[in-house]
Design brief:
alpha+beta; about 180 residues; four-stranded mixed beta sheet; Glutaredoxin
């Protein structure tokens, strides 16, 4: 009887994530682009992450190329770009996720993770982007706003006008992955 009660307590604690290794900012489930599967962002805990709200039909869409270059350059160093297509700014994203996925693959050969079309600055803002806003006090004002989450969990915000290859962004990535 004693072991049954202890076992029940442990089952309760683990099933309710009381002992969860990932809490706070990354503890969000997000839908994978053009799939019916979800992924918990805790999978990226401890990595350096560049979160970007993207759009396929925007004047800044060329930034996909530089984002992919960063992904290929630093992915072996526990770094990843996470792309969140958004229609919040003049509806500059396709409505069909299959079109988004095809565009990103065929035009830029994107290999970094892309997630479902996401509200990043609207009434129904995704909880992950709400957390980023609360931490940085900066909401995306246009497509391709960037948030760098360091391996220690510090969050930095970069304007959509700043290219991904800008020395400020590259140096922040390098500092986080200890390449400098």
């Amino acid at each position: 009887m004693k072991f049954k009660i202890i076992g029940t307590i442990f089952l309760y604690l683990f099933s309710n994530n009381v002992f969860s290794a990932c809490e706070g900012l990354l503890d969000e489930k997000v839908k994978i682009l053009n799939e019916k599967k979800y992924q918990n962002l805790c999978e990226y805990s401890g990595k350096t992450i560049l979160v970007v709200n993207t759009a396929s039909k925007c004047g800044f869409t060329y930034q996909y190329e530089e984002l992919e270059q960063l992904q290929r350059r630093f992915s072996k160093d526990e770094f990843t770009v996470l792309g969140f297509p958004s229609r919040n700014f003049l509806y500059q994203e396709f409505t069909d996720e299959e079109e988004v996925a095809e565009f990103c693959k065929s035009t830029f050969d994107i290999t970094f993770p892309l997630f479902s079309i996401t509200n990043v600055n609207a009434v129904n803002t995704h909880p992950f982007f709400e957390k980023l806003f609360k931490i940085t006090q900066k909401r995306p004002s246009w497509n391709f706003h960037k948030y760098l989450i360091t391996s220690e969990g510090e969050v930095k915000s970069f304007s959509h006008r700043m290219n991904p290859s800008d020395p400020q962004i590259v140096e922040a990535i390098q500092q986080s992955i200890n390449l400098k």
